[in-house]
Design brief:
About 65% of the residues lie in helices and about 10% in strands. The chain has helices at about 5, 15-20, 30-95, 95-120, 125-130, 145-150, 160-215, 215-225, 230-255, 320-325, and strands at about 255-260, 275-280, 290-295, 295-300, 305-310, 310-315. α3 (about 30-95) packs across α6 (about 145-150) and α3 packs parallel to α7.
């Protein structure tokens, strides 16, 4: 052996342990079967959440579209009312001073109606919110089969794998419940905002128009007789009430809000009518409507159902009984 050969260390033979491959850990369960079971349980749990979420999403789209239709209609009505009020002011300004004084309170009533409509769109933040795009509450959580597989591969014990499956299903359920709740809140908030706007902001304006229109005819006739030279202009001025009312009725027509058909003589319906007072009437039966004090309105809800926007205020007949009369 040469000196150079002596300097090369001898190669050691691999040990028996190094020659053997590390054995795979034996699973106490069928991995594919457990993954399939987990997906089946997940889908069963998800089905109800998916149905509720999809229903909420569809209704949210309905109210989003409703708001986008309502806002420009209100803006159009406010602009039209502004022009009508200006026209009425010009008419009054051309009348004799005495007639101007007599009509002053009524003209101010018209101008108040105009300002109420103007406030609906100025500065406009509240109104525009009714037409904002709705933000998605998020997507329902789903775990893919490979994710389940990875989760189960972390253990070889069946009981531990089943425990992980139940814990994961519970977590998914909680997460999806939050998403469904958020989607429900999304619908409710937008719907309530729109209906509250119509009931609390728009309908009182229409009430004021109708009240003025109802009270004015006797006075208009009186004025027309006393101020014959202004009779035609007075008739045009009085039409302002009708034009304003027609403009708001047009808005309601566009968004499918309608006046309730409540006729005197019909029986009171406590779901649609609000009894304001009771009065006797020998010509009518108990619980019949004697008079409509304030108009009621309903609206087209999601899926085509008509619901009460505002109940009609009515005077209901209550006659004394025969026994009470005899006593």
């Amino acid at each position: 052996m040469t000196t150079s050969e002596a300097q090369v260390p001898a190669q050691e033979e691999p040990t028996i342990l190094e020659k053997q491959e590390t054995p795979e850990r034996p699973f106490e369960f069928d991995l594919d079967e457990l993954v399939a079971s987990a997906k089946k349980s997940e889908e069963a749990q998800l089905e109800e959440d998916r149905q509720l979420y999809d229903a909420n999403f569809e209704e949210a789209c309905y109210w989003e579209t409703y708001g986008k239709k309502l806002v420009p209609e209100i803006e159009c009505a406010a602009n039209a009312a502004k022009a009508m009020i200006a026209e009425s002011q010009n008419l009054v300004a051309a009348w004799p001073e005495e007639l101007q004084k007599e009509i002053k309170n009524h003209q101010e009533g018209l101008e108040i109606i105009g300002r109420m409509l103007e406030r609906l769109v100025t500065p406009g933040e509240r109104l525009k919110k009714l037409a904002e795009d709705l933000e998605s509450p998020g997507e329902l959580r789903v775990i893919e089969a490979e994710q389940w597989r990875t989760l189960f591969e972390e253990t070889t014990e069946k009981d531990l794998a089943l425990q992980k499956m139940q814990q994961t299903l519970k977590t998914i359920g909680k997460d999806n419940y939050k998403i469904v709740s958020l989607s429900n809140d999304l619908v409710k908030n937008r719907r309530d905002q729109i209906l509250s706007f119509l009931e609390k902001q728009v309908l009182p304006i229409l009430d004021g128009i109708y009240d003025g229109q109802k009270l004015m005819p006797p006075r208009i006739e009186e004025f027309r007789q006393r101020y014959a030279e202004n009779a035609e202009a007075l008739a045009v001025w009085y039409e302002t009430y009708q034009k304003l009312g027609a403009e708001l009725e047009r808005v309601f027509e566009q968004i499918d809000v309608h006046e309730m058909d409540v006729a005197p003589g019909t029986v009171v319906d406590f779901e649609r009518h609000e009894p304001l007072a009771v009065e006797p009437d020998p010509n009518m039966e108990n619980d019949q409507i004697k008079e409509v004090a304030r108009k009621g309105y309903d609206y087209m809800a999601y899926r085509g159902e008509r619901l009460v926007l505002r109940a009609a205020q009515v005077v209901v007949v209550k006659n004394e009984s025969e026994t009470q009369e005899l006593s």
